[in-house]
Write a structure and sequence with these properties.
single chain, 341 residues, alpha/beta, TIM Barrel, two-stranded antiparallel ribbon, 37% helix
Length: 341
């Protein structure tokens, strides 16, 4: 597979490269990343042919957008695809002296406020352009609107109403109709949310994080295929399920940003045995698997070092024998309804 191969996004005129760099880790999701290392990582991606970059205000509380912008701002704008997200507005903390930024390692000192109204979406978009130092993004995703962040059905429903009755959808539609963006999407962390979004409106694409992978893909029949039927495409993020499909079973293997439960460990061990029997790197299979689905237009991977970037680009281009995929099917590791390369 070639990283710069283009696929269309839904029914829009936008076409994006099938491999991209996701910048969540460069915002410091696990460890603080210094500026020199971050810049070297972006440089390795560009030099390796990556022309698709995904970021968000939430990643490092603005850190990842700043870093992405510094890496790309003086390159020809039509030479890369850039996506970011709306739904969080960053503000200076009221008590700057005692404020401790949450969740991230080495983030910027801002508070994130989760809001999906018309005004909040417009502000989020404009603020992102300023942080990036780039005056156009190709697509905007509605970010992290799910029960992981809104713990009760009432809280989740209230935020969905902000999009509908509060005008968040209207803001995104206006940006698209004005030519500011080419596509509107939603980031998905959990099963069920693609269907909920499609019940409310038509979207052009979904960024599905960790839910459609070599390890777990039950979402295909209920939601990925449904998105395609409704004219939407899918970008797959988290193809390594937070790391375990890249590292295999090691002492610090991450699944869903934490320790893997026994059933996940057993499944990864089974996948690893099949991969080793064919001389296939598990990470290569994880990166290539999602693109077999006709609904999937791209895969984005995270990295924090140039070596990780170069390794993933090589994995993406690796030849994988058809017998490997058929063995996964025959051993019950891939559902019969799920497309395979």
């Amino acid at each position: 597979m070639h990283a710069q191969t283009l696929r269309p996004v839904g029914r829009t005129d936008l076409q994006i490269p099938i491999l991209g760099l996701g910048t969540c880790p460069l915002g410091g999701v696990y460890v603080a990343i210094d500026e020199a290392q971050a810049r070297a990582t972006y440089s390795a991606a560009w030099e390796g042919g990556i022309r698709f970059y995904d970021t968000a205000p939430w990643y490092g509380l603005g850190q990842a957008e700043h870093r992405t912008g510094r890496a790309l701002y003086d390159l020809p704008r039509d030479s890369f695809t850039l996506t970011t997200k709306v739904g969080r507005v960053l503000r200076a903390p009221r008590d700057r002296a005692t404020f401790v930024p949450p969740a991230w390692k080495g983030p910027l000192s801002f508070e994130a406020h989760h809001v999906f109204t018309y005004d909040a979406v417009m502000r989020s978009y404009e603020d992102s352009l300023q942080r990036l130092g780039i005056n156009r993004v190709d697509a905007l995703y509605i970010h992290d609107l799910d029960s992981g962040y809104f713990r009760t059905p009432e809280a989740l429903d209230a935020k969905l109403r902000e999009l509908d009755q509060g005008g968040g959808y209207r803001a995104l539609a206006e940006l698209k109709s004005a030519g500011e963006i080419s596509a509107i999407g939603a980031g998905i962390n959990e099963r069920g949310m693609i269907r909920r979004f499609l019940e409310a409106t038509d979207l052009d694409l979904f960024l599905v994080a960790s839910r459609y992978t070599l390890l777990e893909h039950g979402i295909y029949a209920d939601e990925i295929a449904l998105a395609g039927q409704r004219g939407a495409s899918v970008v797959v993020g988290g193809a390594f399920n937070s790391g375990i499909l890249a590292t295999g079973i090691t002492g610090d293997a991450k699944y869903e940003y934490g320790a893997a439960p026994p059933e996940v460990i057993a499944r990864v061990q089974h996948l690893t045995r099949v991969a080793q029997s064919h001389g296939v790197a598990l990470a290569a299979a994880a990166l290539q698997f999602p693109l077999a689905a006709p609904e999937v237009c791209a895969v984005v991977f995270g990295a924090v070092t140039p070596e990780e970037v170069r390794a993933n680009i090589a994995h993406f281009a690796a030849d994988i024998p058809a017998a490997f995929w058929s063995d996964l099917r025959s051993e019950g590791l891939i559902d019969p309804a799920v497309p395979l390369p």
